[in-house]
Amino acid sequence: MEGKQYKSIWKNKMFQSLAASLLSIAIGLLVGFLALLIINPSGAWQGITTIIKNFFYYPSAAARLKYFGSTLVKTAPLLMCSLSVLFAYKVGLFNIGAAGQYVIGAGACLYCALALNLHWSVCLIAAIAAGALLGAVSGALKAYLNVNEVISCIMLNWISLYLVNMLLNNVKEVASPYTLPIGSASPGSVLPTLGLNKFFSNNYVTIAIPLAMVVAVLIWILLEKTKLGYELKATGFNKFAAKYAGMKQKRNLILTMVIAGGLAGMGAGLLYLTGFEQWQCTQSSVPAMGFNGIAAAFLGGLHPIGTVFSSYFIQHITNGGAYLDKSMYSAQISDFISALIIYLCGFVLFFKQFMNARAAKLEEKQRTSAPAADSPAPPDGGTEEGGEK
Length: 389
What we know:
Elements: H1 2-11, H2 13-39, H3 44-53, H4 61-90, H5 98-114, H6 120-145, H7 149-168, H8 182-185, H9 196-200, H10 208-225, H11 227-237, H12 239-244, H13 249-272, H14 289-299, H15 304-320, H16 333-345, H17 348-368
Helix pairs in contact: 1-17, 2-3, 2-16, 2-17, 3-15, 4-10, 4-13, 4-14, 4-15, 5-6, 5-7, 5-13, 5-14, 6-7, 6-13, 10-11, 10-15, 11-13, 14-15, 14-16, 15-16
């Protein structure tokens, strides 16, 4: 009985995803520690513990709570981008365009807030709609012209960046590349806090955090508990079989990218409508938030609930690098560790295959080592073939 339970653990998909993710994290932290040892051995242990501690670096409980809130503020958009990547991947698409959809969502919500002074709900809907529209372009190109979504998404990422830079150039500060601060320019466009700002002693903590978690649960329900989710996943597994079964393959592809794009656009709204960051109208690189969503999705085992924890972990490690001793190490060492973990996420499938192989060996060993007494004995007075002596 114990052998069967042991075997079932190795074959359990949830256990495989969790074990693979934890192994990726452990190896990433270990290699990061070795890098710190090479750079400066005297502060390596303190450096790696500082990165892991993040806001626990502060001795005051109030300060820890405040900077914990700041980590959560950045976790909400990362979670939305990871859900965007995850949703498309479940339907057989690789949404590397989450970065561009995030950018266009930021442009839409900030323009509605700073130029039109609209309510926060309208600004957030504008961000979702802009991201969904950009995703629809990639989905339509894939469905009707068979254009690879990776190629179309990469090109749209850069188009979105420069388009947003030009758009928000009309609402930037004088003699500054940054947009106007939303808190003073359009207070009604800021997301409500519902008292969370007082609990964390941080004015940037808003409903973005619980809202992102609610969306994660809704995505899980949509994918696992609804007919639409089943059709979308079936299209991803085999679009020809789905078409033969009467499913609208092209519609499903476009709808998938629309939802994925809307999620990434919403992520931008959940960050910029807090006032935590201002958009730099002269930036020449696509923000990393969308690309980090790829890592969070795979580190979370491609499960909506798993991405909640993986998104927080990646942001926790990234923020922890800010507390390193700058005289010894660069703050970018935390980005290096995150990059290692991202790279190792590519081996999650290999780890799962190893576990399946291990389970198969255990099953074979159990079958071959079964005691001979378990086999039925031949009837009295006869041979094994049933004949008489």
